[in-house]
DNA sequence: CATGAATGAGACTTCATTCAT
DNA sequence: TATGAATGAAGTCTCATTCAT
């Protein structure tokens, strides 16, 4: 049961209702195991496209090829559906990233370049990135959703990148910048770019400056790694 | 800090509402000419807080101290109201920035540092930044608004920063990175930070990593200017 | 704001909605002062006829000659509407009864006969009596409504009749029966009768034994006053 | 106390569910013949607690330990289920009462005291009484159910008590009050009390005047038998 | 016999916009 | 100008009943 929105008023012990007409129905497909993922896919696509509030439950259902009521068989409310989407995309990826950092053996610049590239492959360039747009947009209207997102995504992701920067400093590869802040600086342009792909970039607004993701990613890496590294390291990499 | 743009005159030197009632004219008439701006202020605050779709017309009216119908006397619909808000905040600031770039005489690193600082003072740290959050969030649901925003804000702002980077390259201060892309890299963390102030940062979500704006701004400047500048320039600035 | 049902999920900051077509509407009647009572009348009639849960908000509105939304201009939720109905009927009548008991000067048998007759005139034989049916029926499904009803109706009404019996005992007119229990015995058949008028009695069920209210009331009074009074009093009244 | 009707055999001497699993037959088959009664028990409990409309089919099924579809194998619809519950409880008890009256040999006051006590034992204090609450509440929404209830319960029960009063008058024990009306007066407080046990009494509403059943029953008997009897009879009973 | 996934009408409530005053 | 009562489409969630397995 969700804590995000107050449970919707247990609306009513049922007004007397005429029995629904027993007409012929389309054959029901039995796909119990596939349904939850089909619904999550539909929900992800629509949440990303329209946002949380503007996504209608029965549109999610229809896109997954079921009736409105069926959605509620699997997810008891819209906000639980949203949480399931978040868990199935961002939250699980972050956990993987943490493993990578813990076990990495090479240089920290490579680790960070690898993480950012992987992030772009697996998040930034996929619909998953749209989730962040949603939270940015609607956090204030849905405070409990915001808390959920902070706990399951923001905080762990931030920890992930701080840890990587910290490693660079400890190993004498990076200048001693505050790792928390540097982590933000590392992620910001990527997230920013991902955000745009799912909003203004997705509208074919006439004449808006298009962002070319790979180009920005490379430029960004060049800038910030150059900025982070000690000169010796920079020289070794041959960047400058 | 912000020497680049002149500090703007406060639009409302004193809150008109606080004035003692004057006998000669009823308060309603005295405020008649202030109405449009009062409505825009109320609308800006609410749009930023709740987003476009979730802001209710009569809440805007109430906050401005008028009845719902009155709002419609000044702005014929919710989206015209929104456009008026955008014109009165972002669009006019961008025009000022363009003047500054055109007339600047110092080093490009200083120009850029000045622009970014000014942007933070006048946009990033004010409600105006929230407008960008709105567009990010709702562009796809309101294509006409998105087009308007692209034309009046995104495109000119992008041109502004590209021009500045271009200037640095042409004057031999910066390495020859693609100016369009570098412009994005310059702005991204600031915008990113501003976005957060109006969404997750505004909810007091327990435990979410707080972003300290000035720190990020400094770290960012240090990183990217260090990255942009030719070595000679870097050495001259004494950054690393 | 009501405490009976959890506020209905602040359902949603509004999905983007096409502006409603500006077609010609029927002339709006301006009857602000009359509206609340018109709505209460419609609500009372429907609640009594169908019960609380089965009464649909837009049926109340339609019966009062307004659109669904208008109802919510006056009463913020279905349960507040119900409470307003209760306050406007039962609760105010009970207060009147308390005055009568406090100021009565004649014999207690007469007082009680008067109260029961008045109750029948003002409650039992009017739609107000149907409210009790509703609570009986739906108390367990709407616990906070039940609490409201207990506080505003049941408890004061019970106190009213207990006080009257107590008076009879103190003045030596009645035998010393427990006044709380006797009060129940006094009211029960009347309420019972009133209940039936609004349920089985209202359906024209073929062949069900009809209850003739006045006859039952007289028989009841004869029985219970005869039973309550001391013999001397009974002889004086000449009942036996 | 209840010498009039024989105490009924408990329908379920032991809860079948508690039995240890038998190897020879799967539990499902062993319970097959018990299913209808288990469903009726579950339905009675839920109908009484929530009312007819508010009771959900799959809650009945779940409480009986079967799946939703199974319920429909035994009872083709919700209203047939309800009728089966009524037949299994009230209707059969009334038939027994009619036998008792026909064969009784003692005084009518004793017969009536016995009937009322028995009614309280077997109906008023059991869930069966809740059925009456349901009909009171929902008769108008379900006319077909109301007609069924009138035919199978109301009319026969009313005839039962009228016959008893009539007997008292014919035997010179009672004053010549109209028997139909007196019958109502006899039953009303008991039914009233039973109703409350299943509605407001079942909610633990703070401060509502509690009804103590035995006390009301005794007071009621004292009052109405005193009121019904001729003086000679009253004196003989030594009541007052 | 038994299951339980699926259906979809219908409940309550919100809010952009209109228009009589 | 200014008001605010009125409208009604649209959103989320429930549940009696069916039917493929």
Biggest beta sheet summary of chain A: none
What's the tally of helices of chain A?
10
Q: Based on the structure given, which CATH architecture of the largest domain in chain A is correct? A: Orthogonal Bundle
| Proportion of residues in extended strands of chain A | under 5%
Poorly predicted runs of chain A are 1-27
Q: Element order, helices and strands of chain A?
A: HHHHHHHHHH
Fraction in helix of chain A: 55-70%
Let me know the CATH homologous superfamily of the largest domain in chain A. Answer: Tetracycline Repressor, domain 2
Query: What's the count of strands of chain A?
Result: 0
CATH-defined topology of the largest domain in chain A? Tetracycline Repressor, domain 2
Number of domains of chain A: 2
Q: If interface size is counted as residues with C-beta under 8 Å from the partner's C-beta, which chains form the largest one?
A: A-B, 62 and 62 residues
Q: Indicate the overall shape of chain A.
A: elongated
**What would you call the structural class of chain A?**
mainly alpha
Radius of gyration of chain A: 22 Å
N/C terminus separation of chain A: 55 Å
Tell me which oligomeric state these chains represent. Answer: homotetramer
CATH class division of the largest domain in chain A: Mainly Alpha
Nearest-integer average pLDDT of chain A: 79
Question: Would you spell out the secondary-structure blueprint of this structure?
Answer:
Four copies of one chain form a homotetramer.
Chain A: H1 35-50, H2 57-63, H3 68-74, H4 78-103, H5 108-124, H6 128-138, H7 143-170, H8 179-197, H9 213-228, H10 231-237
The structure holds a DNA duplex (21 and 21 nucleotides).
